[in-house]
Amino acid sequence: MYRRGRLGYLLTVLRREELIEAARPLIELALAEDIGPGDITTQATLSGGTRGEAVIVAREGGVLAGLPVATAVFQTVDSGIAVEELAQDGEPLAPGEVVAHLRGPLAGILTAERVALNFLTRLSGIATLTSRFVDAVAPYPAVILDTRKTTPGWRKLEKYAVRCGGGMNHRLGLYDQVLIKDNHVAACGSISKAVERVRAAALGVPIEVEVRTLAELEEALALGVDRILLDNMDLPTLREAVRLAGGRVPLEASGGITLENVAQVAACGVDFISVGALTHSAPALDLSLELGG
């Protein structure tokens, strides 16, 4: 029997400074496209020395992710803005809960508002959706994984948000784990030939193979790979795949996974369930900024 997690989860939860470092180029780009030569509305309506307070409030329940990034946005616009974070990433939020209190130059707070909330609502939305998938499979040992279906440039942040929601990370990119997919197999001529070529390359990383049929599964099982991905199999086929594998190798189900069917997939006995929707279809969590403390 394999030891759960032997392939590793390829992105650990980022420390605060690592998260902000990953976000920094995105923050600079987002502020540049939003502010341009200047926030003309704020410049016209506020005097430069006006100070004030504001709070960031959750308008619906969910899971928080990205608050340090939002803080970095405000302080990039004006280092004089003090942000008191009243909640931590990964914590559940109740409707009406205040997650941060801001004090300082009011012009900076208003100029940074939308960009900060864009990061916060996006990442919290991913964490919230992930938590719902994790809760749905709680009676089973299956682990919820993300995929590479991420917003270009946002991968580390979005995979961080998945971890905040209780999920785990699949490979971070094309460089840290082999995943032999159908097109690789087609190019090589068979699963066996593709695995043979990977092993000849002596990459020193785990090898996962995607299979679409039970015949392909049996071929992959004979090769002793590290994980097998069961692509778009229906429930009876998944159950038979688990029986055939007999615990010899971790099995990952993928394709067509929804909140409505994920528990049924987990009940088949697979070890991992990868869900592209965690990052490509998560709705933003409703958080807003309100003036006044």
Strand coverage percent: 15-25%
CATH architecture field of the largest domain: Alpha-Beta Barrel
Could you tell me the radius of gyration in angstroms?
22 Å
Morphology call? elongated
Q: How would a textbook summarize the main sheet?
A: 6 strands, parallel
User: What's the end-to-end separation, in Å?
Assistant: 56 Å
Class derived from helix and strand content: alpha/beta
Instruction: Tally the helices.
Output: 11
CATH class of the largest domain reads Alpha Beta
Mean of residue pLDDT values: 94
- The assembly state of the depicted protein chains is single chain
| Total tally of structural domains | 2
- Arrangement of strands in the largest sheet: 6-11-10-9-8-7
The count of DSSP E runs of length 2 or more, i.e. the number of strands, is 12
Under CATH, the topology of the largest domain is which?
A: TIM Barrel
Could you describe the 3D structure shown?
The chain has a 6-stranded parallel β-sheet. Helix 8 packs parallel to helix 9. It contains 11 helices and 12 strands. The longest helix has 31 residues. 42% of the residues lie in helices and 18% in strands. Strand 8, helix 8 and strand 9 form a beta-alpha-beta unit. With 293 residues, the protein is of the alpha/beta class. The N and C termini lie far apart (56 Å).
